[in-house]
Amino acid sequence: MTVQGSSILVLGGARSGKSRFAEGLATGSGLDRHYVATGRAYDDEMRERIAKHRADRGEGWTTHEEPVELADLLRRIDGPGRVVLVDCLTLWVTNLMMAEDDVAMRSAELVEAVTGLSSRLVLVSNEVGLGIVPENRMAREFRDHAGRLHQLVAQHAAEVYFIAAGLPLKMKG
């Protein structure tokens, strides 16, 4: 169990069980639970995914939707006695890239915000660097941005987990 004010990074592939694991960490903390959703519902399939995530999570969560201004939101909702789950960082990176925002600057801002929070923080993200080199420039830039962000967050996190087939591997902490 981590102390309040520390952060946990949960990485894994698509459908690896990382969100379920992260939600279990948050629920098991006994703290007031806040869920930060970074996804945008651009189409019916994404709306269905968001609805399923919300239903699977169940009651007892305060939900915040923020696709871009993540560091600012985390500072606004910060407080002792809270656990904040962010799902997910790779969707956040996608949103920044689509807005032609400075991903490196925003990543540094996020890490600065994370290190100053009193809330326990659980950050979920897709590990995208284990596959083949993407064939197009934007996909390669996305992979690179996500990889650099994961390294920054992991450096400052108290704990880091990698989830595969629903099984957690503790990498740090």
Could you explain how this protein is built, in words?
Helix content is 44%, strand content 24%. By secondary structure, the chain is an alpha/beta fold. It has a single domain (7-172), classed as P-loop containing nucleotide triphosphate hydrolases (Rossmann fold, 3-Layer(aba) Sandwich), CATH 3.40.50.300. The termini are close together. Its EC number is 2.7.1.156, 2.7.7.62.
Secondary structure: number of strands: 7
Structural class: alpha/beta
Strand line-up in the sheet with most strands? 3-2-4-5-1-6-7
Low-pLDDT stretches are none
What overall form do the CA principal axes indicate? globular
Describe what is shown at a glance.
The chain is an alpha/beta fold and 173 residues long. It is built from 6 helices and 7 strands; from the N terminus they run E-H-E-H-E-H-E-H-H-E-H-E-E. The chain has a 7-stranded mixed sheet with strand order 3-2-4-5-1-6-7, with helices on both faces.
How would the blueprint of this fold be written?
Elements: E1 7-12, H1 18-28, E2 32-37, H2 44-57, E3 61-65, H3 70-77, E4 82-87, H4 89-98, H5 103-115, E5 120-126, H6 137-156, E6 159-164, E7 167-172
Parallel strand pairs: 1-5, 1-6, 2-3, 2-4, 4-5
Antiparallel strand pairs: 6-7
Helix pairs in contact: 3-5, 4-6, 5-6
Features:
cobinamide phosphate guanylyltransferase activity; 173 residues; alpha/beta
